[in-house]
C-alpha cells in the first residue's frame, strides 16, 4: 500500500492550483491548499475536501509560521507545489512601471523562494526527502511582447529550480518545474471564448492546435512528484502542445 503523502499547493484556490490539488487528492494524498484570498480558499477547500491555510507568500515570517502549523495539523510535508504567482501586471519594457515589476518579482520570485526555503528546511530536518514542483512558464524561454516582466520572473523560477535541485539533492529532495504555455483557466476562457479571434491566434501558434487544460498541467505536476520520476531533478518540463518548437 502506497504511503499517504502530505502535499502543499500554493495558489490552490485558482484554476491551475485547484486542478493540481484535485489530482493529488484523487491519488489519496493529504492535500493542503494555500492562498491569500481567504474567501476563495475556504470555498475551494470545502468543495474539494482538503485542508486550507491562508498564506501571503511575500511575507517570509508568515510563510514560516504557516509551514509550522501545516506540519502540526497534517504531518510532515512530502510534496510542495509552488503554483502561486502574479500574472495580472503587464507592460512593454519602456512603459512598465518599476513598482509593478517589483510586485511581479516579489510574488513570483521572492514568494516562491520563501516557501521553498521554509519547506526545504522542514524536509531536511525530518530526513524523509521530498519533492518540490514549481509552476513556471514557457515564456521564460519564448518571449511575448508586453509580457516580459512576468516572463523574466519565470526565467528566475527556472534558475531557482536548478539551484534548489543541486543543493537539496543530498537531502533526498527533488526539485523540478512544469512550464505551461497558455492554459484554459476559467479566467482565460472568459476573456478568450471559443471561436474568438484572440483564441484562434493563440491556437495557431501551438502545433497540437489547442490550449492546455488545467488538468494537463496537473498531470505533469503529479508525475514529477511521483516515484515514477524518482531519478528526475532540476528539469523544467514544457506542457505547451509543442509551442516551443515553433
Written overview of the protein:
- Belongs to the short-chain dehydrogenases/reductases (SDR) family.
- This is SDR family oxidoreductase.
- Keywords: NAD, Oxidoreductase.
- This protein is of the alpha/beta class and about 250 residues long.
- The chain has a single domain (about 5-245), classed as Rossmann fold, CATH 3.40.50.720.
- The protein contains eight helices and seven strands.
- It has helices at about 15-25, 40-50, 60-75, 100-125, 150-170, 185-190, 195-205, 215-225, and strands at about 5-10, 30-35, 50-55, 80, 130-135, 175-180, 235-240.
- Strands 3-2-1-4-5-6-7 form a seven-stranded parallel beta sheet, sandwiched between helices.
- Strand 1 (about 5-10), helix 1 and strand 2 form a beta-alpha-beta unit.
- Helix 1 (about 15-25) packs across helix 8 and helix 3 (about 60-75) packs parallel to helix 4.
- The chain is globular.
- The N and C termini lie far apart (about 45 Å).
- About 45% of the residues are buried.
Question: Characteristics of this structure?
Answer:
single chain; 246 residues; alpha/beta; Rossmann fold; 7-stranded parallel beta sheet; 7 strands
> What does the overall shape look like?
globular
Counting helices, strands and paired strands, the structural category is alpha/beta
Task: Write down the overall mean pLDDT.
Answer: 95
The low-confidence parts are none
Portion in beta strands: 15-25%
Level-2 CATH architecture: 3-Layer(aba) Sandwich
Share in helix: 40-55%
Number of separate helices:
8
Q: What's the CATH H-level homologous superfamily? A: NAD(P)-binding Rossmann-like Domain
- CA radius of gyration is 17 Å
CATH class: Alpha Beta
Largest sheet: 7 strands, parallel
Beta strand count: 7
Order of helices and strands: EHEHEHEHEHEHHHE
Number of domains: 1
How are strands sequenced across the largest beta sheet?
Answer: 3-2-1-4-5-6-7
CATH topology descriptor: Rossmann fold
By oligomeric state, this entry counts as: single chain
Distance between the termini: 44 Å
Amino acid at each position: 500500500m502506497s504511503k499517504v503523502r502530505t502535499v502543499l499547493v500554493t495558489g490552490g484556490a485558482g484554476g491551475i492550483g485547484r486542478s493540481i490539488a484535485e489530482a493529488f487528492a484523487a491519488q489519496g494524498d493529504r492535500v493542503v491548499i494555500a492562498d491569500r484570498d481567504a474567501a476563495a480558499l475556504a470555498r475551494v477547500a470545502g468543495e474539494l475536501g482538503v485542508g486550507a491555510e491562508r498564506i501571503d507568500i511575500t511575507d517570509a515570517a508568515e510563510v514560516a509560521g504557516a509551514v509550522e502549523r501545516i506540519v502540526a495539523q497534517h504531518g510532515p510535508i512530502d510534496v510542495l507545489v509552488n503554483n502561486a504567482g502574479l500574472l495580472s501586471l503587464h507592460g512593454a519594457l519602456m512603459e512598465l512601471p518599476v513598482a509593478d515589476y517589483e510586485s511581479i518579482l516579489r510574488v513570483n520570485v521572492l514568494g516562491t523562494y520563501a516557501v521553498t526555503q521554509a519547506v526545504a528546511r522542514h524536509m531536511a530536518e525530518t530526513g524523509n526527502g521530498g519533492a518540490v514542483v514549481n509552476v513556471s512558464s514557457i515564456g521564460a524561454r519564448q518571449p511575448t511582447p508586453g509580457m516580459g516582466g512576468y516572463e523574466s520572473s519565470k526565467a528566475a523560477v527556472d534558475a531557482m529550480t536548478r539551484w534548489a535541485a543541486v543543493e537539496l539533492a543530498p537531502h533526498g529532495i527533488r526539485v523540478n518545474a512544469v512550464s505551461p504555455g497558455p492554459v484554459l483557466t476559467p479566467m482565460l476562457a472568459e476573456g478568450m471564448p471559443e471561436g474568438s479571434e484572440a483564441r484562434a491566434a493563440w491556437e495557431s501558434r501551438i502545433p497540437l492546435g489547442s490550449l492546455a487544460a488545467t488538468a494537463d498541467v496537473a498531470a505533469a505536476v503529479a508525475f514529477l512528484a511521483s516515484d515514477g520520476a524518482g531519478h528526475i531533478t532540476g528539469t523544467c518540463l514544457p506542457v505547451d502542445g509543442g509551442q516551443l518548437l515553433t
